[in-house]
Structures are given as C-alpha cells and as structure tokens.
From TrEMBL:
This is UDP-glucose 6-dehydrogenase. The lineage of its organism: Bacteria, Bacillati, Actinomycetota, Actinomycetes, Micrococcales. Its EC number is 1.1.1.22. The keyword Oxidoreductase applies. NAD(+) binds at residues 30, 35, 85, 121, 150, 271, 338.
Length: 441
C-alpha cells in the first residue's frame, strides 16, 4: 500500500522504515533538511539500535524514500501524522503548532477514502478537532497512539504489545461506517507479522488519546512511587533495591519500572504528565490529576538530593571539587538529552562551584549543543582523571561494568555515587571506594 509518514523524528523515522519492512511503499516527510538528507541516504539522524540496519535494508528495496516536499504525499492512501508535541515554553500544556502545521499542509493532498492516522501524543480533544477539519475532504481520521520506547523503538514498532484504534463513533458510541472502513484499511496496513499476537483495542477518539497519556502517567507514577520509597529508605537505613525486589514479586505490582535513582527524564514522560495536568485543568477536573504534581516533584527532588549526596561525600562542599559524570543521555541506548537527569545534575553541580566533566557513549554531541558550558570527555577513564567524585548518572552497560580497581587508578579520591542503583556496593567498597546511592544505606 502507498502511504506517507509526516514527521521523521524518533517515532516517524522508525515507523516509516517499519512500514517499508512490512512491504508498503512509504514516503517520509520532514521540514528538517539535514534529517531528510541523512534518512534518504540510509543513515539514522539519531542513535537508535537496529535503525541503521532497518533503514539500509528497506532503502535498498526502493520502497522507502524521504523528502521535504509535502506534495510527494499525493497518491498515498494512508497518512501517518508523527510530529512532536513538546511542552510549551513557560507553561505545562503541549505545543500543538507542529500538529496543526502538518495538518494544514496535508489537507490539500488528501483524497476521499484516504485514512489519516494520528500517532502523536496529544491533549484529549485534539482528534475530535482535527476530524472536523478533515471532514470536507471525505477522508477519515483514526487515532492510533504509539507506545515505543527509545532504545527499543524498532522492536516496539514491529512487535507492539497492543494496538489501539480510536475511530469516529456515532450517537450510540459504535464506529460509524467510515470508521469501520478506515479500520479495515489499518488492519491491512498492520497485517502480519506486526499485528500477530498483539491485542487490538478498538474504541472512540477520546479513549484512544487518553490511553497514551494514562499509560505514561502510570509509568511515571510507578517510578516516583519507588523514588518516594527511596526517601523513606534513606530516612531509615533501608535498601530500596531489596524493597523493590520484594514488592515486585507480587504479580499485581511487578518489578519493572521500580528502579529507584535519578528518576525519569526524556522527551515523553515529563512533558506528557504536565500536558495531561494542563488538559485536566481545562476540562475542569484538575483535582483528578493533582497526584501527578506530586509525581513530578518527587522526580525533580531526586536530582536535588544527588547534589546533596555529592556534598556529603565531599565533607560538606563541592566548591572546587572535580566531579566526573558518567552519562548524558536521559537513558541508556539513546543519544537523547531532552530533560536528562544526568545533565541537569551535572549543570547544577557546576553552578554550585564544582569542576564537572561529563562523558557518554553516544550523547556527547547533543549534550554539548544544549549545555556548551559543560566540559566533556571521550571516555569514563578520561572523565574520571583526578576526580574527587564519580557519579554514575545513566546506566550504560559500559558504566555498569566498570572495574573499581581500574577506575580507582585514575581518580584523586575513591568516591562513587550510584545514581541508578546498578553497581554492587560490596565490590566497590571492597576496592576502597566510598559508595553512596539514592535509597540505599
Ligand atoms: C516512554 C514510555 O515507556 C513509552 O511507552 C512511550 O511511548 C514514550 O515514553 P521513553 O521515554 O523512551 O518511553 O523511556 P522509558 O524507558 O519509559 O524511560 C523513561 C525514563 O524513566 C528514563 O529517564 C529512565 O531512566 C527512567 N526510569 C525508567 C527510571 O528511573 N526507573 C525505572 O524503573 C524505569
């Protein structure tokens, strides 16, 4: 099937390549010339495991191309809208300029019977508004949120754990005829192997839009819950990692997303919970989500606590102390530095008078662009040269596997802060390190 993907960021680029892998003929469109040039020559414009291989394989088939010219979407039967919805400057709400601009540009090329598929994360109510604008074209809007995680984007797109279709519904809440027809088109798009084994939830627009923000709010809440427990552990001498193991054995709770540490960052969870709170306020139900404000503050408190911990291990002051920060990306296997806890702690320590050097296997370039005042190094050993304190802030495998003896050779003082609770305290202490972590004795 011929289809277009508007917006080629983490979501769109992976989606476009995945659709071509399924055998479709895909054109990806983005306003960013550099991004389009990279993708068109088979290169991934950001670090995402498996994407270069997927792009290489699908570009070679001739079924996948990228362009900045939106007119090239003409002739596509399905149009995926995958543009970003960042947090507005100075407020909590999501900025819809990219979604609206994509829609404006797309409308003249849409034909009767086409299906426009919204995949961006949007404030509930957006789909209804866009569907009204689309109505005169005779095309149908389906809201089909995407749940991919960075670092696992290819796997999550090709093997989703569920599919959600939000369809236009009539007065009795059943899909309209046009909705059923659009569903059949999308079923064909996602036909095996993508949809194999993935439960399909068919619902209305509002539910489909809410599913995405509800899922991300739940995940953020789970992380902040365990980080709140970490605060209790710190006050009592308990160990949050053992606590998480023990409560996680209960199937109803589950161990995943109970890793205490520096908390969540990235381009999704922080801005999604904030946009959700803002939307709830507009809908007059802000009380329903007031707990998310607490989820947000627990999360931000971890960053402050880490700076305090650095001060504690440096006998009360980090002024003039050398700190090596291992990690710049908001999570491992990504070069994304948006709202990265690692960088926000690094910047805060620098502001408070420490000499900070940051390293990351993939994210240094992005980090330097956003934080030009920070100093960067090529490796953990280089960053840790003469350091008084080493902070593990992003749990890349190469940092998790660091040898305390080897690292101990280059530092000025053997002090390690484990911001992700991934190191073995016994091993590090046996090598003469002062080991401190969030939520561990
Ligand atoms: C998230 C959702 O998981 C995904 O479904 C959605 O589509 C987009 O948002 P992503 O932002 O890629 O994906 O990262 P995720 O793996 O969810 O991690 C988010 C943040 O939480 C990271 O900063 C991570 O370090 C942190 N985290 C995660 C924890 O602090 N503890 C945990 O136990 C898990």
């Amino acid at each position: 099937m011929r289809m277009s993907v508007i917006g080629c960021g983490y979501l769109g680029a992976v989606h476009a390549a995945s659709m071509a892998k399924l055998g479709h003929e895909v054109v990806g469109v983005d306003v960013d010339t550099a991004k389009v040039e990279a993708l068109a020559s088979g290169r991934a414009p950001f670090y995402e495991p498996g994407l270069p291989e997927l792009l290489g394989e699908t570009s070679a088939t001739g079924r996948l191309r990228f362009t900045t010219d939106l007119a090239e979407v003409a002739g596509s039967r399905v149009h995926f809208v995958c543009v970003g919805t960042p947090q507005k400057r100075g407020e909590f709400g999501a900025d819809m300029v990219f979604v609206d601009a994509a829609f404006d540009a797309l409308l003249p090329f849409v034909q009767p019977g086409d299906v426009v598929v919204g995949k961006s994360t949007v404030p509930v109510g957006t789909a209804e508004r866009l569907a009204e604008r689309l109505a005169p074209t005779g095309a149908t809007l389906v809201w089909n949120p995407e749940f991919l995680r960075e670092g696992f984007a290819v796997q999550d797109t090709l093997h989703p754990d569920r599919l959600v279709y939000g369809l236009p519904t009539g007065d009795n809440a059943v899909p309209t005829e046009a909705g059923e027809a659009a569903k059949a088109v999308l079923d064909e798009v996602y036909a095996t192997p993508l949809a194999e084994g993935a439960p399909l939830v068919v619902t209305d627009y509002a539910t489909a839009q809410l599913v995405k923000v509800a899922a991300n709010s739940f995940l953020a809440t789970k992380i902040s819950f365990i980080n709140a427990m970490a605060e209790l552990c710190e006050a009592t001498g308990a160990d949050v990692t053992r606590l998480a193991d023990a409560i996680g054995y209960d199937d109803r709770i589950g161990r995943r997303f109970l890793n205490a540490g520096l908390g969540f960052g990235g381009g999704c969870l922080p801005k999604d919970i904030r946009a959700f709170m803002a939307r709830a306020g507009e809908l007059g139900v802000d009380q329903a989500l007031s707990f998310l404000r607490e989820v947000d503050s627990i999360n931000m408190r971890r960053r402050v606590r880490m700076v305090d911990l650095a001060r504690e291990v440096c006998d009360g002051s980090i002024v003039g102390r050398r700190v090596a920060v291992l990690g710049a990306a908001f999570k491992p296997d990504s070069d994304d530095v948006r709202d990265s806890p690692a960088l926000s702690v690094a910047a805060q320590m620098q502001l408070q008078g420490a000499y900070v050097t940051v390293t990351d296997p993939q994210a240094v370039e992005n980090a330097r662009a956003k934080w030009p005042d920070l100093k960067f190094a090529e490796s953990a050993l280089e960053a840790a040269q003469d350091a008084d304190v080493v902070l593990l802030a992003t749990e890349w495998r190469e940092f998790r596997e660091l040898d305390p003896e080897v690292l101990g050779e280059v530092v000025a003082g053997r002090r390690i802060l484990d911001g992700r609770n991934v190191l073995d305290p016994v091993r590090w202490r046996a090598a003469g390190w002062t080991y401190r972590a969030l939520g561990r004795p």
